[in-house]
Amino acid sequence: MEYVLTTKQLSKYFYQKKALDKIDINIEKGKIYGILGPNGGGKSTFLKLAAGLLNPTQGEIIIDNKNPGVYTKSIVSYLPEINYFYKWMRIKDALNFFNDLYADFDMENAEKNIEFMKLEEKEKITSLSKGMLGRLKLTLALSRKAKLFLLDEPLNGIDPVSREKIITSIRDAFNKKSTIVICSHLIYYIEKLLDYVFFMSEGQIILAGGVEDLRNKRSMSIDKLYQEVFQ
Amino acid sequence: MIILLKYEIYRRWKWLAIRYAALIVLGFIFFNRISSSPMQYGIIAESMGKFFLVSIVVFIIIIIEGINMLKEDLYEPCGYLTFTIPQKERVILASKLLLLFIQLGLWGMISIGFGSIFFSKLPYQEISRVTTQIDSSLYPTILFILTAFFNFVLMVHLSLTLTKTLLVNKKYSGLLSIGIFFLLAYLIEKFYYGPFLNQIRHAYIEFGTASNINVLSGGYTAVFLNIILTVVFFTATAYLLENKINI
Questions:
Q1: What confidence score (pLDDT) does residue B134 get?
Q2: Hey, are the CB atoms on B84 and A87 less than 8 Å from each other?
Q3: A73 to B86: CB separation less than 8 angstroms, yes or no
Q4: Which of A110, A146, B117, B151 is 20 to 30 A removed from B48 (C-alpha atoms)?
Q5: Which of B7, B80, B87 sits opposite A84 (nearest CB)?
Q6: Do residue A71 and residue B86 have CB atoms under 8 angstroms apart?
Q7: Are A158 and A136 in contact, with CB atoms under 8 Å apart?
Q8: What is the pTM for the complete model shown?
């Protein structure tokens, strides 16, 4: 099995608070993973560590056989939950920025996706609604030919119509050479995409398994299982 | 590096254009005023004073902006965009400092350019009096001041980066940054510039003006000391950004 991301006893503390506690995760190439759990469970911290924005307190995170750094940033496409664009940007500027700074950015595909997402290139990012912003972030993140996509709450605050568009985009962007990790607590929408799930709470993995296996063993959907686990 | 510099300029090009255009336009307005009022030294002096006041305001804006260039990326959500691009953090930092360097250079050229023109309009006796005061220490003094302000920005960058490394949330970060800044300033004065200035004072007392060095500038040696400090601050900030910080 070829792993694109591996962690060994990965821990992240913020002072006394354990955001992640000795996590061991192996993420296989060519699969879609879901990291599911309530807010504050450590999902975003995990993605930020993988994106190279945080440094581990203990343990190790390996992406494509390298520690987080310039190389891993060149193969990881990270979509944060927040609006991370510069205030001066228009959609066109954001496209150019990604095109200039990421060698794997596919401008042609991005322009098609912008149209599909019903966004206007000349619009200022500060004037976009939350749904439009979510669609733009996803378009940019998925227009890279990255080995690993890290999507943090891609459906948060998004209206149902946009959610469907986002799900379609994620499905279209996925191919067997890439891997997608999605953090979310909106399981109902993403369940159909996932191959494997980690249930995360208080910085620890409390349940993990293949989606089909879990459904068969527990005789319930992942959404129901989530509600049962985190009740 | 050039692409990053392009985006640093692009981020603030309107303000950059306004700032330098204002300085140049005001320079020409004062120049016209001086040219149309020959021998009216009151008007010349007033115009010169106003121009230098504007020039100092622009300089302060450049310094504040130099500080904010990194502060924004450390404390605002846009830092996620900046620090996930596949570039070494030292290159990101260098692009910001390069813009600061270019800005200070442009400011220096415009200010000194107009300053020289205004000085040339002063009567002969006044100029000769000024030029006798301006000896060979002028250029190292200007260089010293510019590198000192450059280091001031870098020292603030280091303080902010160290604060962000130690404290994740924004609460108390301002206070800690200020504390670290003053601690650094104290240590540098005590162990770096202090002994050097004592040597200069000693030489000045011992050999007087014949030594051709003065307490203010310390000649090119002081500039050299500043450059060493620039390298130290840059390396320390880049190290923290690359290995320790949590965005």
A1: 59
A2: no
A3: yes
A4: B151
A5: B80
A6: yes
A7: no
A8: 0.86
